[in-house]
Design brief:
heterodimer, A: about 70 residues, alpha/beta, 3 strands, about 30% helix, B: FAD/NAD(P)-binding domain, 7 domains, five-stranded parallel beta sheet, about 25% helix
Chain lengths: ~70, ~900
């Protein structure tokens, strides 16, 4: 598979206080990034149960992003 | 012209000043509006769909009755005439630090790209010139602006991050990074390759494509260097309308047109009831301004304490409708255009239509601005009309707008937690502006996930915890006593705990201040006032030995020792103020010289005691003072902020007692910031000799007892000089006292220098990370007495918030333990970073976890680690997150 064909589905868990806020300010600053990420907001990545990660892969995610 | 961007960019006559402006509302700039200037146009009136523009509005005068006024007009600009000698205004690449700050900023004129204003090329070499409009009698600003050294370091580092190749030099007289952690920032800047040159800049002239900067160094040499950009680190002037304000409100200004205040009453103007806060009181940085504003609010609250709450209007909500677990889920989805912010990228109608037929969705709609006032009315009407019991809004960030919509839900009689927000602006349209199809797909996915979560959302109770309206103040020094007095004046019972037998702390060792106050008189008055106050209980020879509980509900064990007898008392209180102070550090080695303290080798404090004493010859005939003795990397890593002022104070005292006495001060950077610069200048005028030394060439001391000799390098003579002074005075630093023990007891962090670490350095400077615990004085960091007093007043003002409310409200998104399922393993208790979950014995004697709602921050570490899934997080349950993950996959 060439690099261009691969269009990964990425599931992200974003900490409300840091990464979610950073994603907001990326928006405010109009930084452009690829549209492959789908996010779930949590109050802290401490909430991230390993089971969520496994479920994410089982549901078809090509990658899991944890931002906290 | 866009004034926010220093006129370096253009904006429209109708605009929001900047992204974080409060209120974030558009307004018409009367200077740019064609109608207001020339009576034409008015296009905006007809094009505004909400009919929000009304040119018939007139300025009106209103009269309000008030009990106190706080003056916080900020600072003014250094006049352009002062900058002209550096070719400012004649060459576009000579700019002020304010302009350069805008260049660095992502919301600035070049979106954060640093370019020369002359030809838009990227600069290769940048120079900063310090003390422009400060420490300069030429423009009648004899004071130091206190903040410029630090902001120049910051700007230099940011510029270096933008382009690591750029060469940056900062030309300075003294680097004044005296604040908490500031020296570390300068060291970081040096390690990034930023150069610091001690020099006076003679002028800046255009030179071919560049600028030529001419400067002279201490050794008397003149040199010049080419630069692409020269940044003038402009100081803080008094506000332009200071005189006018002073006249209107009837308070006095100092000789620089800042507000005149006293050392021991730093926020009182000369008119009772009028307080001052921020840079108008004297140039200062953000943490100190924030601290002063809290303190001023606390003082004003004390003045009008008996009227507290009289003008309060309580908002009422309709009765909350019951939303049972088994009730049919009825979701309403609202997709926002946000004007063109979302709508120009994401196909909003397609996203809205996408929700048609989704399980549980009974209503969907679009709105132009879902946050507008009329949209709230529509939202309320639709909730009623369609009997909605879950609301999903696909718009911007919940971090900014969730509270607004939750308020609308409450107004519509719904529990505010029956709400989910999907961010299709900040996380979608704005960041995928060139990929509308992909952005629309992403929006659909995010909405699908949001709806999936919404199906599982349950109402959560609003929780409040009652507060014991009493305060505990640890420390009976000037910080503790001031904090106690500020609380008592607001009407709160306060207990002060002092481990020594006397009150007053280390201020008892000082005799006079730089400003000329007699310390013992002022301290005596403070102690008397505190003793007479019926709301204050004073416990000397007492220490805190145990503490349990949480904000609003602490319980402490206090141990009092009288001789060999110790007694323990238990105190219930709602808040804790830490004012445990610090002490003089007595290093045994200074600048690699072993020190044996004696009559001839003393600290500045000891010298001060001698100077204030009644002896026949209090002033020594010759003194050498050594600054940073044991500080700033010599032993302690930080600057103690007060030692330079202390040296100048004692030097002036010696000169007053005996004008023929010889005083030499060996220093690294004289940090007489703010108005203390006047005293530094005065000392030089009186013949005190200040000679800089560097860490590569440290002064050497010899001798002990009555004979000492000091050898140092004089950069002007360019040779070593040996002196045999009568007294060698060491300007030693300050260390925190007992912070490590207290840190363990209260579970609050200290920094690497053993001072308490505040909750947020800039925005929450007197609060600690544990709710209900505040800090002031030397336990926070070394600082002079006027700053300690302000900090104590600020800590008291912050502590008074839960005390006056009478309850602590808790966000519903916290952890909740299913007692049935819990096996009492205690993993959660050991992992909780906030000590907010504990193991108790239930009625059957079984170990069970219990959330302490008042202090839980909702992070969910307990829930994700619970081996039996007994802990659920309000608003972020396993069920809800799993539903989101499943919806992520279900395409």
């Amino acid at each position: 598979m060439s690099q261009n064909d691969f269009n990964p589905k990425i599931l992200g868990f974003l900490c409300n206080w840091c990464c979610y806020a950073a994603a907001d300010s990326a928006g405010v600053s109009r930084y452009q990034y690829p549209p492959n990420l789908r996010t779930i907001r949590v109050m802290c990545t401490g909430r991230l149960d390993p089971a969520f990660v496994l479920r994410g892969f089982a549901e078809g995610a090509d990658g899991i992003f944890s931002g906290g | 012209m866009d004034p926010y961007n220093e006129g370096l960019a253009v904006t429209r006559p109708i605009h929001i000043d900047y992204a974080q402006a409060v209120p974030a509302t558009y307004y018409i700039d009367p200077e740019a509006c064609l109608y207001l200037k020339h009576g034409t146009c008015q296009i905006c009136v007809s094009s505004c769909q909400s009919k929000a523009i009304d040119f018939s509005q007139k300025a009106e005068e209103k009269e309000i009755r008030i009990g106190a006024v706080i003056m916080a007009p900020g600072f003014g600009r250094i006049p352009d005439a002062t900058l002209a000698k550096y070719s400012y205004g004649q060459h576009p690449d000579v700019m002020t630090s304010l302009e350069f700050e805008r260049l660095l900023c992502a919301s600035g004129p070049f979106e954060g790209e640093v370019k020369c204003l002359s030809d838009r090329r990227h600069p290769k070499r940048i120079a900063f010139i310090q003390c422009v409009g400060s420490r300069d009698l030429g423009c009648n600003n004899g004071y130091c602006s206190s903040v410029c050294c630090m902001y120049s370091i910051k700007e230099a580092m940011v510029a270096k991050e933008h382009d690591p190749e750029v060469e940056i030099t900062i030309y300075y007289i003294d680097m004044r990074t005296q604040g908490k952690g500031f020296d570390a920032a300068q060291q970081k800047a040096e390690s990034m390759g930023i150069k610091f040159v001690r020099a006076r800049v003679a002028d800046v002239m255009p030179w071919e494509n560049n600028l030529k900067l001419t400067y002279s160094t201490l050794d008397g040499m003149h040199r010049f260097e080419p630069y692409d950009i020269v940044v003038l680190s402009v100081g803080l002037d008094a506000p332009a309308d200071a005189k006018n304000l002073g006249e209107i409100a009837g308070f006095a200004l100092n000789n620089y047109d800042f507000c005149k205040t006293e050392t021991f009453a730093p926020l009182l103007t000369s008119r009772p009831g009028v307080y001052v806060a921020g840079a108008f009181q004297g140039p200062k940085d953000i943490p100190e301004s924030v601290t002063q504003s809290s303190a001023a609010a606390g003082l004003a609250a004390g003045l009008i304490a008996k009227d507290r709450g009289k003008a309060l209007v309580h908002k009422t909500y309709p009765k909350e409708q019951k939303t049972g677990k088994d009730e049919e889920v009825r979701i309403g989805v609202f997709v926002c255009h946000c004007g063109i912010n979302i709508g120009s990228v994401v196909d909003v109608p397609a996203v809205e239509q996408y929700t048609e037929g989704m399980e549980g969705v009974v209503y969907h709609a679009q709105s132009m601005y879902s946050c507008s006032q009329d949209a709230q009315e529509v939202l309320k009407a639709k909730i009623k009309e369609h009997n909605l019991n879950r609301v999903v809004i696909a718009a911007c960030s919940p971090r900014t707008h969730e509270p607004l919509f939750q308020e609308t839900l409450k107004d519509a009689g719904l529990n505010r937690c029956l709400f989910e927000m999907v961010n299709i602006r900040d996380h979608c349209s704005w960041v995928h502006a060139n990929e509308p199809a992909a952005a629309t797909e992403k929006s659909k996915d995010l909405v699908r996930m949001g709806v999936a979560k919404a199906r599982h959302i349950q109402p959560l109770p609003e929780q409040t915890v009652p507060v014991t309206a009493k305060a505990l103040v640890l420390g009976g020094g000037v910080a503790g006593l001031t904090a106690a007095l500020t609380l008592a004046e607001q009407g709160f019972q306060t207990t002060v705990v002092e481990k020594e037998g006397t009150l007053g702390g280390h201020l008892q060792h000082l005799s006079y201040t730089l400003q000329g106050d007699t310390v013992s008189t002022v301290l005596g008055e403070l102690i008397d006032t505190v003793k007479k106050n019926k709301k204050i209980e004073l416990l000397t020879n007492t220490e805190l030995s145990q503490v349990s509980g949480f904000v609003g509900n602490f319980s402490s064990v206090l141990t009092t020792s009288k001789g060999k007898k110790t007694t323990e008392t238990t105190l219930d209180h709602g808040v804790i103020i830490i004012a445990t102070g610090g002490r003089e550090y007595r290093p045994e080695v200074v600048l690699d010289n072993p020190i044996k303290y004696s009559e001839a080798i003393v600290t500045q404090r000891e010298l001060e005691q001698r100077l204030a004493g009644k002896g026949k010859n209090p002033a020594p005939k010759s003194v050498v003072m050594v600054q940073c003795a044991g500080s700033r990397g010599d032993d302690l890593n930080y600057c103690s902020k007060v030692c330079c002022n202390h040296a100048v104070k004692n030097a002036l005292k010696i000169k007053a007692l005996d004008p023929s006495a010889q005083v030499v001060v060996l220093y690294r950077d004289m940090r007489t910031y703010g108005f203390a610069e006047d005293a530094y200048r005065q000392a030089r005028e009186k013949g005190v000799v200040f000679i800089p030394y560097t860490m590569d060439n440290k002064p050497k001391f010899k001798g002990s007892g009555k004979k000492t000799s000091v050898t140092f390098f004089d950069p002007i003579l360019r040779d070593e000089v040996t002196m045999t002074p009568e007294v060698l005075a060491l300007s030693v630093g300050i260390v925190a006292e007992g912070t490590e023990e207290l840190s363990k007891l209260l579970k609050i962090p200290v920094n690497e220098d053993k001072f308490f670490l505040e909750a947020h350095v800039k925005l929450r400077p007197v609060e600690l990370p544990v709710s209900g615990v505040y800090v002031c004085g030397l336990a926070h960091s070394p600082k002079p007495v006027e700053e300690i007093i302000v900090q104590a007043q600020a800590a008291a003002a912050k502590a008074a918030i839960p005390l006056s409310k009478g309850f602590v409200s808790v966000e519903p998104t916290i952890s909740c333990v299913d007692k049935e399922a819990c096996i009492g393993c205690g993993l959660c208790e050991s992992l909780c970073p906030y000590q907010s979950i504990r193991i108790i014995k239930d009625e059957n004697g079984k170990r069970k976890a219990e959330t302490i709602t008042a202090s839980c921050k909702g992070c969910g570490i307990c829930a994700s680690h619970c081996p039996v899934f007994a802990i659920s997080m309000g608003g972020y349950t396993d069920e809800q997150i799993n539903a989101q993950i499943t919806a992520f996959g279900a395409k």
